[in-house]
Structure formats: structure tokens, C-alpha cells
Amino acid sequence: MDFLKAFVIGGLICAVGQLLIDYTKLTPARILVSYVVAGVILGGFGLYQPVIEFAGAGATVPLTGFGALLAKGVRKAVTELGLIGIFSGGLTAAAAGVTAAVVFGLIVALVFKPKSK
Q1: What does the pLDDT look like over 78-99, one tens digit per residue?
Q2: Nearest in space to 38 (alpha carbons), one of 6, 7, 70, 8
Q3: What is d(CA 68, CA 94) in angstroms, rounded to the nearest whole number?
Q4: Are 100 and 87 in contact (CB under 8 A)?
Q5: 76: closest CA among 94, 93, 60, 51?
């Protein structure tokens, strides 16, 4: 059942993005940024956590989950460090995921030797 919930919620998030691409003049980059900002706003108000608890990876893998992670990290850092946590909290919370993306991207680039067309 967890897989079904993750698939449905993640699919809905992706479907909204596809609808925005098809029926608006927004560029994909603006849609991606909008997803992160929406995740930060929803995460900041604590509205995204119930979605994460319900859907698991279906809510944390899309960019809205990244935004919610940034907001959660900032809230935690502000509680522990005060106002300086505004600047360090998001970076600390997302460091492992960003590092993994960079390292795995480098490994794939080295293994498959990308070429320009």
C-alpha cells in the first residue's frame, strides 16, 4: 500500500507540472523553481509534513520535498543557533543529497564519457 500511495502522490505532483508545461507559457525552469518555493512555503507552515508522512518517497523525491527539507533545516537551525540559522540551516539539511547528486553525476560522467553532438 505504501508503494501505491507514493506512486499516486508523486504522480499527481508530476501531472501538475506537466499541465503547467502544456497549458501555460511558463518555462520548465520556472516551474521547477516554483515547486521548490512551494515546498519551502508549505514546509515552513508545517503543511507538507502530513503529505510526507502519508506518501513517503512520493512526496520527498519531487522538488517540493527538497523545498520542504530546506524549510525544516532552517527551522531546526534557527531553534538551535538563533537568526544565523537562517543562513546555515537549509545548507546543512540538504548537504547529503546535494553531495550525493554531484558525486554520482561525476561517476556517471567518467564511466560513460559524454560527448557533444
Answers
A1: 999 999 889 999 889 999 988 9
A2: 70
A3: 10
A4: no
A5: 93
- Residue 26 is placed in which grid cell? 511558463
CA distances from 38 to 11, 14, 72, 76 (A): 17, 14, 13, 19
Nearest to 64 by CA among 4, 1, 16: 16
Rg of the Cα trace of the chain?
16
Q: What is the DSSP string of 57-95?
A: HHHHSSHHHHHHHHHHHHHHHHHHHGGGHHHHHHHHHHH
Task: Find out whether 42 and 48 touch, Cβ atoms under 8 Å.
Answer: yes
Section 55-64 average pLDDT: 90
What is the model's pTM? 0.80
DSSP 83: G
